[in-house]
């Protein structure tokens, strides 16, 4: 773009100048997604790039590298970060703890530094929770239907059993029951 070309020309013409462009300062993502924290820097000489993550859980240094030389990745991010020559990094498998501010510092060999910030919002996938509720509801409805059918069968069996066995009281049994109730 014209802006990045103009900044690059200013940077190269000034001794010890460094520039940094952050095209997307705010990123929204969901859990388990991969994101690219995209930046573009330019400077005269060799630059050192450092990324930090700041959130309510604290500040963590993610990675630091010198262009064309070493790359020092934090143990917490060892298998989750990829660095690029333009200063960008890719983070794999985002989690809720990855939400927060990502700060990049680009320092050129003459000591001039520039800073950039990217805000990352991480959201949980809500439809998975709704899917669980729907499956639970279907399971409970099926169990209820089975129990209702079982109760209906028991009721029918009881009626059939009562029809097959006559329960006629004899005269002597009726008198005994009447006598017992009077004595009380």
Instruction: Please identify which CATH superfamily of the largest domain we are dealing with.
Output: Immunoglobulins
State the name of the first-level CATH class of the largest domain: Mainly Beta
Strand fraction equals: 25-35%
* Whole-number mean pLDDT: 84
Compute the CA-based radius of gyration: 37 Å
For the largest beta-sheet, the strand count, sense and barrel status come to:
6 strands, mixed
What class, by secondary structure content?
alpha+beta
Q: Treating each run of at least 4 consecutive H or I residues as one helix, how many helices?
A: 3
Give the N-to-C terminal Cα separation.
105 Å
Helical percentage: 25-40%
What do these coordinates show?
By secondary structure, the chain is of the alpha+beta class. It folds into two domains: 19-125, Sandwich (Immunoglobulin-like); 126-175. It is 35% helix and 34% strand. It has helices spanning 2-13, 126-164, 171-183; strands spanning 18-21, 26-30, 35-37, 40-43, 47-55, 58-66, 71-73, 81-83, 89-91, 100-108, 113-123. The strands form three sheets. The chain has a six-stranded mixed beta sheet, with no helix packed on it. It has a three-stranded antiparallel beta sheet with strand order 3-9-8, with no helix packed on it. A two-stranded antiparallel sheet has the order 1-4. The chain is rod-shaped, with a radius of gyration of 37 Å. The N and C termini lie far apart (105 Å). The model is unreliable at 1-15 (pLDDT under 50).
């Amino acid at each position: 773009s014209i802006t990045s070309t103009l900044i690059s020309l200013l940077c190269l013409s000034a001794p010890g100048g460094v520039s940094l462009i952050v095209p997307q300062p705010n990123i929204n993502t969901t859990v388990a997604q991969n994101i690219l924290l995209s930046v573009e820097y330019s400077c005269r000489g060799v630059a050192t790039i450092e990324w930090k993550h700041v959130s309510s859980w604290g500040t963590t240094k993610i990675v630091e590298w010198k262009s064309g030389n070493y790359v020092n990745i934090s143990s917490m991010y060892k298998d989750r970060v990829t660095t690029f020559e333009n200063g960008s990094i890719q983070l794999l498998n985002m989690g809720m703890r990855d939400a927060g501010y990502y700060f990049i510092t680009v320092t050129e060999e003459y000591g001039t530094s520039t800073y950039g910030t990217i805000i990352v919002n991480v959201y949980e996938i809500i439809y998975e929770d709704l899917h669980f509720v729907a499956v639970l509801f279907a399971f409970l409805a099926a169990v209820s239907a089975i129990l209702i059918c079982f109760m209906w069968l028991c009721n029918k069996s009881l009626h059939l059993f009562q029809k097959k066995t006559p329960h006629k009281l004899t005269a002597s049994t009726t008198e005994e029951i009447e006598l017992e109730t009077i004595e009380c």
